[in-house]
Amino acid sequence: MVPVFMPLWAILLVLGPVPGQSVSRQFTAALKSRISVQPPWTNYFSGDTVTLSCHKPGFLLYQIKWYHGGKLLSHNTNTFQVNESGNFKCQADNLLPSKSVHLEFSNAQLILQAPFEVFERDSVVLKCQEKKRTSRSNITFYRNGQHLPHQGTEYHIQNAGLQHNELFPRPVLLARPSQPTDGSPVNLTCDTQLSPQKSNVQLKFCFLKDNLISRQVCSQDPEYHIPAIRKEDSTSYRCKAGTSNIWKTSRPFQIPVQIPVSQPTLTLRTPRTQAVVGDMIELHCEAPRGSPPILYQFYHENIILGRHTAPSGGGASFNLSLTAEHSGNYLCEATNGQEAQRSVTITLNVIVPVSHPGLTLRMPRTQAVVGDTVELHCEVLTGSPPIQYQFYHENVNLGNSSALSGGGASFNLFLTEEHSGNYFCEASNVAGAQQSEAVSIKVIVPVSRPVLTLRAPKAQVVVGDVVELLCEALSGSPPILYQFYYENITLGNSSAPFGGGAFFNFSVTREHSGNYSCEANNRLWAQQSDKVTLFVTGLTGDRSGSVAAGLTGVLLSMVVLAAGALLFHCWLSRKAGRMPASDPTRRPSDSEPQEPTYSNVSGWVELQPVYSNVNSLGGDVVYSEVRRCTKERPYAVASVPLVPENKGSPVIYTEVKVACTSASKPNCQPPQ
C-alpha cells in the first residue's frame, strides 16, 4: 500500500468560499473575466501541458491579457497553454481581471489530483496518480492526518458542503425604493449569484410576506413587482433562492411605507397686532399629514433661517428677535425623505418706532417779526411710515400733517405778537409717539408811529420855563430807544427797556421856539412822530420891557371891556328885532381854562382869541392886536394853540403912549 501523504490543503485551496454580493455589485461581478483550466485539475506532473481559457460572459472577445505572477505576458489569444508552476489570471477587454489560478507542476512520483472548482452538494472525485505505473495496488488516502478507510486510486466525496465551496451565497432581499410612499410602486429583488463555473444551473426565487407560505410567490425571476404599496403593507418580507436540492432564505426585511408630507402651514405668532422692532416672534410650521420624522426648514426671502426635526410628527417652531431688516416674505418647507412641500408665503412688515423728532424754525430773517410767515418743520430720522406729525404752541395744538412715505412735515404760521412762546412737535406711528425738544420764538413787534407831547407849567411858555417832551409808541417790542429832535437836530435820547414812553426835559430859552419831533426805534423798525411847534412868549428883558408888559395888560383889559360892550349891544339889538337870531361870522369863545400842554394830535376846532403886541415903526406907540383864531377841543390829549392867521380876524388897535424914562430913548417925550 502506498500512502498518499499529500495533505488536503492543496485541495482546499480551490474550495474557499465565495462571498455573497449585493445587487449593486451583481452587474460588476457579471462583467468580471472568468478563467477555466483543462484538464480541470490543479496538480500536474512535470512535462504535462495545461490549457487555460479566458471567458467574457455574454460577449464576444476582442482583446485578452494574460498575467503570470502579476507580470503581463505577450500572449493575447483567449487560450493559453502553460507547463510551469505559478499563479495565472486573465483579463478580457476592459472587464475586471479574473481570479488567480494556481497550477503546480511536480517532479514527485505520486500526486493527488482534485477538481479545479468544487461547490456545495457536488460529488467530488480525488485521484491519486503515479508518474510511472507500477504493480502497486495499495493506496491510502488521509484527511487532516487521519487515515481514510478506502481502497483504490480514487476517493469519492458525496454532497460537498460549505467547507468545500458554495454554489451561491445566501440571498439578500432588497426593495427599491427602500422607503416607498403610500400608493407608490415597489420592486423587490432577491439578490444572490451563481458561481461563474456553474452558470448552467437555473435558480428559482420565492418571495414571502409575513413569513407566510400562503403568501409565497415563486418564479425564476429574482424580482417581484408590487404595483401600489399601502401603509398597511409596512410589514416583514423574505425571499428564498435555490435549486432542486439547495434552498437558502434571506433575513427578514421591513418595508417602511411612508406617507408623504402634505403642504405645511406657516403661522406667525407675534405679541401684538403689528410686529415692532425688538419683538420676539415665533414661526410655526406644521404639515397636517406625513410619516415622521419630518424635517422643517424656515426661510426669509429664500434664505434659510434654521431647521428643526419633529421625530414623532407634529409641527416645529423657530423664534426670531425682530430688527428692521426682518421685513419681507417668509415660508417653511416640510419633508420626510420624500418630495418636499413648501408653505404659502407670508409677508411680515416690521414697524420701526419713530425716533425723537427734531423741530426746525424756518424764518425769512434772523428775528421773528409780526407779519412774517414762519415754517415749523418736524422730522424724524427713523420710523416706519405713515408718520403723523402734530405741532404745539404752549401745549395747544396748532395743526397736524401726515407723511405717508416717511420724511418730515411742515406747518406755516403767520406771526402775531401772541405767537411768542415755546413750540414743539410730536411724531407718531402705530408703534408709538415721540416729542421733540421745545423751541422758543420771540416775536418782535415793530414800533408804531410815536406821539410827541409837550408839557409846560402854564399856557404861555416863556423863557426860563421847564418843558417836558414825552415820546411814546403805542405798540412795539422793547427795548425801545427814543430820540428827541429840535428842527431835525438831536436834543438827546432815552431808552425804555420794558416798553412805554420816554421823557426829555429842558429849560426854555429864546431860541427854543420852533418845531419838535421824536423817533422810536426797537432795532427792527424806526418811526418818527409828527412835528409839534412850540411858541415861546413873554420874553424877559430890561425895565422898559416890564412897562410895556404892564401897558399891554391894561390894553388887554380895555379890549375885553370893549368886546363885552359890543356883545351886550348885539344882544340888545337882537332882542329889539334889529339883528338876526344868529351871526354866521361869530363863533363862541371857549370858556374852558387852557391847560399848558401842546400836542400834535388832532382835535375839535373852536374859535379862541389870541393876543399879541405889535410895535409901531416909530417905537413910541404900542398897539394891542386881538384876533380870533380856532382852538382844538381836546380829544385824546390837550389842545394846541396854533399860530394866528390874518384870515377875516377882526383886529382892534389901541394906541398907547410910552412913558419916558431914564432908560428910554433920548428923543422920548414924557406925557403932558
Automatic annotation (TrEMBL):
<keyword id="KW-1133">Transmembrane helix</keyword>
<protein>
    <submittedName>
        <fullName>Fc receptor-like protein 5 isoform X3</fullName>
    </submittedName>
</protein>
<feature type="signal peptide">
    <location>
        <begin position="1"/>
        <end position="20"/>
    </location>
</feature>
<dbReference type="InterPro" id="IPR007110">
    <property type="entry name" value="Ig-like_dom"/>
</dbReference>
<feature type="domain" description="Ig-like">
    <location>
        <begin position="169"/>
        <end position="241"/>
    </location>
</feature>
<dbReference type="InterPro" id="IPR050488">
    <property type="entry name" value="Ig_Fc_receptor"/>
</dbReference>
<keyword id="KW-0732">Signal</keyword>
<feature type="domain" description="Ig-like">
    <location>
        <begin position="450"/>
        <end position="537"/>
    </location>
</feature>
<keyword id="KW-0472">Membrane</keyword>
<feature type="region of interest" description="Disordered">
    <location>
        <begin position="577"/>
        <end position="599"/>
    </location>
</feature>
<keyword id="KW-0812">Transmembrane</keyword>
<feature type="domain" description="Ig-like">
    <location>
        <begin position="357"/>
        <end position="440"/>
    </location>
</feature>
<dbReference type="InterPro" id="IPR003599">
    <property type="entry name" value="Ig_sub"/>
</dbReference>
<dbReference type="InterPro" id="IPR036179">
    <property type="entry name" value="Ig-like_dom_sf"/>
</dbReference>
<dbReference type="GO" id="GO:0004888">
    <property type="term" value="F:transmembrane signaling receptor activity"/>
</dbReference>
<dbReference type="GO" id="GO:0006955">
    <property type="term" value="P:immune response"/>
</dbReference>
<keyword id="KW-1003">Cell membrane</keyword>
<keyword id="KW-1015">Disulfide bond</keyword>
<keyword id="KW-0393">Immunoglobulin domain</keyword>
<dbReference type="InterPro" id="IPR013783">
    <property type="entry name" value="Ig-like_fold"/>
</dbReference>
<dbReference type="GO" id="GO:0007166">
    <property type="term" value="P:cell surface receptor signaling pathway"/>
</dbReference>
<feature type="transmembrane region" description="Helical">
    <location>
        <begin position="547"/>
        <end position="572"/>
    </location>
</feature>
<dbReference type="Pfam" id="PF13895">
    <property type="entry name" value="Ig_2"/>
</dbReference>
<dbReference type="GO" id="GO:0009897">
    <property type="term" value="C:external side of plasma membrane"/>
</dbReference>
<dbReference type="InterPro" id="IPR003598">
    <property type="entry name" value="Ig_sub2"/>
</dbReference>
<feature type="domain" description="Ig-like">
    <location>
        <begin position="264"/>
        <end position="345"/>
    </location>
</feature>
<keyword id="KW-0325">Glycoprotein</keyword>
<feature type="domain" description="Ig-like">
    <location>
        <begin position="33"/>
        <end position="106"/>
    </location>
</feature>
